[in-house]
């Protein structure tokens, strides 16, 4: 597996985007803590975000153009947003993402509000590296974690926000409706449905309004079907059900929704002809890496496709001290993604 891209700070949950010929990475910024590991993820106690950029990925290509290609210099643009700037946040700045639309830049981030419920916020800037000014309230109607934005450049620049995460991410608390008022704390304990016939909980998607700071229309389920039955994936199918870490990319007119399976530690994907689904499970992108969590983004840069992800190699396996890596990925003639195995 490739070496960590960033070694002077711990970074995780990398959302990569290409803006004006450069690669920008919007990751979580992991930090040391004495908080004990638990299934709620309290040990992921992050308080700010940095943005990073680099000009080339050639050194990480499967077959670099020459054996003497040097690893690119990664520029750390410093802290672009911190928890203390956001009035509604109490703790845990988790996996962010960014979008550019009509010349402005939007940083989407999940955090716990003052009542310990995860919501999603947005901060706005005029440059890919900020500064980003946060809206004073979370995005109305948002809930849970791991926002991933997708601007459909081929279709009117329509923009969408995908989100959700089980267990500590609280997605299971919204089984009676896709809105904050449906939060049911009773589901913080059981963590997710299970048992014969129980359907997996779906990730969520909402169309972003023109202002990119609110939803246009309802939050919907993003349905993932099992290819062998055409029925929604079952809750007990932990090797394929959505857990967290949503990402969307489009290649050759096909929409690829990818995600982590959580407690089985795979990155998996599903495909559709529509950004709203339904999606059909397609396979695995990445086998388990060192560390409990796995999270990623997929982006095209200079005609090749790249998987950004994280593992805990740099910290020697400490689950909450992760670092970002990148690897070239490949598709077969039918558009299936070739699974990457950590070496
Ligand atoms: O970084 C905190 C959480 O860990 C993220 O929100 C999840 O996707 C997992 O990577």
Describe this structure in words.
By secondary structure, the protein is an all-beta fold. The chain has a domain at 10-179 and 201-218 and 288-338: 5 Propeller (Tachylectin-2, Chain A). Helices cover 0% and strands 38% of the residues. The protein is built from no helices and 21 strands. The strands form 5 sheets. Strands 5, 6, 7, 8 and 9 form a 5-stranded antiparallel β-sheet that branches. A 5-stranded mixed β-sheet has the order 14-18-17-16-15, with no helix packed on it. The protein has a 4-stranded antiparallel β-sheet with strand order 1-2-3-4, with no helix packed on it. The chain is globular. The model has no long low-confidence stretch (mean pLDDT 97). Bound molecules: beta-L-arabinofuranose (FUB). Residues 12-13, 28, 41, 44, 94-95, 145-146, 165, 244-245, 293, 295 line the site of beta-L-arabinofuranose (FUB).
Overview features:
Tachylectin-2, Chain A, five-stranded antiparallel sheet, five-stranded mixed sheet, globular, binds beta-L-arabinofuranose
What is this structure's SSE topology?
Blueprint (H helix, E strand, L loop, with lengths): L9 E10 L2 E9 L17 E7 L20 E8 L6 E3 L5 E5 L2 E10 L4 E8 L7 E2 L13 E5 L5 E6 L40 E5 L11 E2 L2 E2 L18 E8 L2 E7 L6 E6 L6 E8 L9 E6 L2 E8 L11 E7 L14
Parallel strand pairs: 14-18
Antiparallel strand pairs: 1-2, 2-3, 3-4, 5-7, 6-7, 7-8, 8-9, 10-11, 11-12, 12-13, 15-16, 16-17, 17-18, 19-20, 20-21
The chain binds beta-L-arabinofuranose.
């Amino acid at each position: 597996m490739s070496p960590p891209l960033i070694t002077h700070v711990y970074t995780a949950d990398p959302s990569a985007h290409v803006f004006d010929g450069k690669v920008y990475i919007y990751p979580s910024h992991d930090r040391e803590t004495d908080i004990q590991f638990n299934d709620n993820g309290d040990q992921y106690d992050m308080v700010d975000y940095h943005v990073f950029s680099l000009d080339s990925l050639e050194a990480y290509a499967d077959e670099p153009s020459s054996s003497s290609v040097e690893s690119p210099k990664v520029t750390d643009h410093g802290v672009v947003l911190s928890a203390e700037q956001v009035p509604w946040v109490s703790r845990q700045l988790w996996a962010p993402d960014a979008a550019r639309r009509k010349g402005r830049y939007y940083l989407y981030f999940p955090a716990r509000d003052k009542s310990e419920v995860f919501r999603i916020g947005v901060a706005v800037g005029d440059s890919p590296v900020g500064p980003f000014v946060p809206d004073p309230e979370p995005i109305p109607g948002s809930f849970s974690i791991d926002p991933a934005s997708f601007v459909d450049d081929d279709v009117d620049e329509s923009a969408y926000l995908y989100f959700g995460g089980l267990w500590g991410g609280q997605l299971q608390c919204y089984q009676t409706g896709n809105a904050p008022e449906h939060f049911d704390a009773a589901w913080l304990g059981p963590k997710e449905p299970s048992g014969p016939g129980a359907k997996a909980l779906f990730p969520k998607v909402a169309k972003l309004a023109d202002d990119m700071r609110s939803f246009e229309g309802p939050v919907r389920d993003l349905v993932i079907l099992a290819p062998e039955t055409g029925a929604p994936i079952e809750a007990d199918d932990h090797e394929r059900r959505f857990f967290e870490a949503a990402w969307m990319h489009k290649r050759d007119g096909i929409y690829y929704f990818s995600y982590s399976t959580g407690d089985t530690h795979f990155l998996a994907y599903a495909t559709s002809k529509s950004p709203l689904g339904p999606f059909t499970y397609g396979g695995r992108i990445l086998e388990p890496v060192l560390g409990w969590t796995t999270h990623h983004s997929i982006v095209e840069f200079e005609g090749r496709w790249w998987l950004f992800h994280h593992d805990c190699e740099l910290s020697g396996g400490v689950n909450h001290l992760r670092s970002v890596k990148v690897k070239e990925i490949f598709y077969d003639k039918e558009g299936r993604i070739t699974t990457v195995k950590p070496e």
